[in-house]
Amino acid sequence: MNRNLYIRCGLGLALSLLGTLAWAQRPLSGKFDLGKKLELSGIVTKVDWRNPQVHVFLNVKSAAGTLNWAVELDSASMLELDGWSEESLRPGEAITVKGSAARDGSRQVWGEDVRYAANGTLVFPPKSKALRKPLVPRPTPRWPDGHPALGALPGTADGYWTEPSKTALVEDGVDVKMSEYGLLANIEDAAKVAPMQPWALGVYRNRQARQLRDDPLFVNCKPPGGPRQYQSPLGFQLIEDRAHQRVFVLLGGGNHNYRIIYLDGRKQQGLVGGDDDNPLYYGRSSGRWEGDTLIVDVVGFNEDFWFTQGGLPHTDLLHLRERFTRTDLDTLRYEVQVEDPGAYTRNWSASWILKWNGGASLPTHFCQNNRQ
Amino acid sequence: MGNPSSSTKWSVVVLAALALAVPIIAQEGHPLKGSWIGVWESNTVHGNDVLMVLTWDGKNVTGMINPGTDNIKVDKASLDPAGWKVHIEADAKDKQGKALRYVIDGALQQLEMPNRAIVGTWQSPSGRGKFEVRRQ
Q1: Residues B54 and B38 sit within 8 Å (Cβ to Cβ)
Q2: Which one, of B121, B116, B127, B111, lies nearest residue B39 by Cα?
Q3: Taking CB atoms and an 8 Å cutoff, what residues of chain B touch A199?
Q4: I need a surface site. Which of A222, A301, A372, B63 has the fewest CB within 10 A?
Q5: Which residues pair with residue B123 across a beta bridge?
Q6: Record: contact A207-B84, CB cut-off 8 A
Q7: Cβ(B27)–Cβ(B34) under 8 Å?
Q8: Contact assignment for A342 to B12 by CB distance below 8 Å
């Protein structure tokens, strides 16, 4: 092998590795132009059922001949949650697709409306199956000592918290339009979202201008640390291990990560000689009850992830004060105060409501699960 | 041509390692925080290669140039989000022990990348030249 070839091989390896990473899952608006709509009719040739995105391939006849298109859909986990399965569509079936075109002009479309061509039956997105709240609020379940139960009591049906009333972090009282991913409708609203320092506002605007395509959650499957873990449609469970004075937070999304809130008064530090100087994606949590509210103090975050949808920056000075209140059986109120003197000019707060999905199991989502 | 030289092999290994390392050392906080490696070209006093370690305490960027060898403490450092302009001043000593003040002006490039770069110029009473470092 001559010297030039050797160098080319090295460069090729480096670029291909970078390319693979860059083309991993990304936020919808980074890859597709939501303003550029397409309509296709064709025959399904393959269904690639896997995370992070399901793809349906179909042959579409056109003046240029038969061309194969890729229809990108949500993750397999999300589709299964909505009642889809790998068998919902089969090769050979005729479908029509309405959706948004790929920004790079390739034969890819984000499927917003997928129907069987024969009878027009909608196969994606499925009918909304939003959880219904009972007409009369059901009382908050409680442990024998009177504390509210944050999850299912022993002997009762399992369940988890989902359907956050807000899917991106915005300071309470601020009214700005943004997508479910936190992409602002008007980037000039950026400064309203939270009281950012100039550098943080600049970074936030840059992330927004790039359509959130650099989000480490999607690009590198980084965990959804901080308040973001409570804004995933895949939900979370709060498992109370009362014997050991701790609460496990199990995530439906975020690679099925978990986090522990200690209620035994321990210091928020790691093991000496172990991870004591190692900041974490989920930080170190210490909690206590104040009436019917679990108050959690979290510090020790690293800076390797976005702690919100939409890309609000944070630093390792981030300090969260969380409040969990189960106001009735079906409702959990989450409140968070963000203190980060490294990125914000003052403390600020946000809050939202989550619904109890009783009788259901927490979804199991792995970002790069190839289902093998 | 025969076998590749050891420097060529080393280049290949470094390229591959960089590609693998990029996602591992992602940093989404203050854009200047981290370790930066590159060159300050034509620097006859402290050499062509430069290593810079910067941190952010919420109010100030502080750090050290060539820690462990020259230990040039960063005296002033700033980042202007309008154009992502970087300004750094640092006091050093030349080989005779005479005071030498470095002034570095540049701009952040590829802000969104973990291995973003600062590209600009350096100058001191001993000379001036191109300054380019990349975050590791």
Answers
A1: no
A2: B121
A3: 30-31, 79, 81
A4: A372
A5: B103, B128
A6: no
A7: yes
A8: no
Q: How far apart are CA B17 and CA B13, in angstroms?
A: 6
Nearest residue, CB atoms, A14 vs list B18, B30, B56 = B18
Report the half-sphere exposure of A372 (CA within 13 A, side-chain side).
3
Taking a contact as any Cβ pair under 8 Å apart, which residues of chain B between 42 and 71 contact chain A?
56-59
Return the amino acid letter for A29.
Answer: S
Q: Tell me the pLDDT tens digit for each residue of A120-158.
A: 887 776 555 667 777 788 999 999 999 999 999 999 989
Q: What is the CA radius of gyration of chain A?
A: 23
Task: Kindly tell me the sign of the dihedral angle through the C-alpha atoms of A59, A61, A64, A65.
Answer: positive
Q: Which among A3, A201, A221 is the top mutation candidate for probing chain B, defined by the most B β-carbons within 10 Å of its own β-carbon?
A: A3
> What number of CA atoms fall less than 13 Å from residue A31's CA on the CB side?
21
Nearest residue of B to residue A311, measured between CA atoms: B28
Residue A19: closest C-alpha in chain B: B19
List, for residues A206-231, the tens digit of each pLDDT value: 999 999 989 988 888 889 999 999 99
Provide the phi-psi class of A292: left if phi over 0, else alpha when psi is between -120 and 50, else beta. alpha
- Asked if residue A216 lies in contact with residue A228, where contact means CB atoms within 8 angstroms, the answer is no
Would you tell me how many other CB atoms lie within 10 Å of the CB of residue A61? 11
Residue A216's contacts (CB-CB under 8 Å, 6 or more residues apart) are: A222, A304, A305, A306, B26, B28
pTM of the model: 0.81
